[in-house]
Amino acid sequence: MSRFRIAAQPINWINDDFRDLGADISLERALDDMVEAGFEGTELGHRFPASGAAIRELLAPRGLSLAGAWHSTHLASRPWSEELAAFDRHADRLHAAGASVIILAECTGAIHGDGSRPLGKGDQRGQLDEGGWRALCEGLDRLAQRAALRGMKTAYHPHMGTVVQTAADVDTLLAGTRELGLLLDTGHLAFAGDDPMITLEKHGARVTHVHTKDVRFAVARQARAESWSFERAVRGGVFTVPGDGDVDFASILGEINRNGYSGWLVVEAEQDPKVANPLTYAKQGRATLRRLLGA
Description:
By secondary structure, the protein is an alpha/beta fold.
């Protein structure tokens, strides 16, 4: 257990993509709930201060650390100079806040924030041609090298509605990169219809960050069959915390442990906080992880 630290994602309280979810919840309440539930850290959300120093000052009195934060890349569609500048600003902010992990996700052609766009109609990966994939892979490795200069790691986040959402997409991405780390997000891989355990067995050595997001398989199957949008799936309850869905976390945590992973385990569940009390579910998710880890 000493190799792992357990954090919460503030999206459990305050949603970044669909901002009416949790609009009435203050950041201070979310952070205080995390402390009450026993978490050691948090990731960022849209309510956090702009400066890294201010983030550190917000978290330190509560005994929380910054586990990492999402950064949207557009490496396949924007000039490298723009991407580099945006990355450096983000990395400097995280470094000043005390984080060691930078989460990356390519958002060229992404549809996850658009409630009118169905998932499962067409191949999101097909948004990129051969040149786009080459630019993406080369750019991600260069960003990973930039992160290493700050003593930080990158963690690529497969995400529904983006060009890297399935296990096959992850295989292609990691075959085309060498420096890039992988964020194992159990929820997005399971929602895509894949077994996150297989991805972990293939690429465990590349895992630098873990999101422990559970999935209600019946909802995921319906969402795929009926081509729901990502928003409809979230509002329909596709995601939940570990121990409340159908992902086999006992096997996944066992494999993570055998691989020698050392780092953050982040409890994440995009739910409507008016339907699923965030504190109650956060406590359940953390308790499930600790029980399965034997802590």
